[in-house]
Write a structure and sequence with these properties.
This protein is α/β, with parallel strands linked by helices. The chain is built from ten helices and nine strands. It has one domain: 2-enoyl-CoA Hydratase, Chain A, domain 1.
């Protein structure tokens, strides 16, 4: 698949750097954007010279989540059904996020500005997260009559009570709060974010690659034994009932209301 310039990829000295490159749209995710991102992750995973993969973003914000105006690449039927929504979201949202989580190489996300809803599905699958001091993390989709994004890592990332608070209120979690609950590894000044992440990636790249792979596998499998994988799969089904609720409230275009809410969030 030929990639566009909305996802940039470079590799040197054992580190691949993937850059989200739709700054004019706050790195909102179209279908082609996600396909290109998956291709970039796959390229890094398959390159024997790459030992660490960094995910970063150009612009003020890491990601505003799904681009709700995007309808390209979905091949939607004339009548949208629950089955069609389920299969489309399983492929591009849940399956992609789980695949990125289980890449056989360490991954680091560098997050600045807003990380809204599906933006979490880009940074949460990464092994480490370094946040700029201005980073804010939110999942306000309860406003859309849906209980959370498709890759529902909230409880694992935040703990049960903080997850409920963020979902129930729709408010953003600051970088300092995210570090306090263990969701991010480090918080640094915005101007130091890229340098800090590249230094961390370079340090990890000096480690034995098989040892890194096995260490990641050990931690991920421990979480899976505790129920992570089964929970993610089952809560995805719960998410799908949210679409039914949105339909029952005012029809599927209720989803479009999040665009205006995102604009308000960006200005806060």
């Amino acid at each position: 698949m030929e990639r566009t310039d909305q996802i940039l990829y470079e590799a040197a000295d054992g580190v691949a750097v993937i850059t989200l490159n739709r700054p004019e749209a706050a790195n909102a995710q179209t279908t082609s954007f996600l396909d290109d991102l998956d291709a970039a992750f796959t390229q890094g995973a398959n390159d024997p010279d790459v030992r660490v993969i960094v995910l970063r973003a150009n612009g003020k914000h890491f990601s505003a989540g799904h681009d709700l105006k995007d309808r390209t690449g979905w091949a939607a039927p004339e009548k949208i059904t629950v089955e069609w929504i389920y299969d489309a979201e399983m492929r591009r949202y849940l399956d992609y996020s789980l695949r990125w989580r289980n890449l056989p190489k360490p991954t680091i996300a560098a997050v600045q500005g807003k990380c809204i809803a599906a933006g979490l599905m880009l940074c949460w699958p990464c092994d480490l997260i370094v946040a700029a001091e201005d980073a804010q993390f939110s999942d306000p989709v309860v406003h859309m009559a849906i209980g959370g994004v498709e890759y529902h890592g909230h409880t694992w990332e935040l703990g049960a009570r903080k997850a409920k608070e963020i979902l129930f209120t729709g408010r953003a979690l600051t970088a300092a709060e995210a570090e306090k609950v263990g969701m991010v590894n480090r918080v640094v000044p915005r101007e130091d974010l890229d340098a800090e992440v590249r230094e961390l990636a370079a340090q990890i790249a000096q480690m034995n690659p098989f040892g890194l792979r096995q260490a990641k596998r050990a931690v991920n499998q421990t979480l899976d034994v505790q129920g992570f994988y089964a929970a993610i799969q089952s809560v995805f089904d719960i998410h799908q009932t949210g679409h039914g609720n949105a339909l029952s409230v005012s029809g599927y275009p209720v989803l479009m209301r999040l665009d205006g809410m995102k604009e308000r969030l960006k200005s806060q």
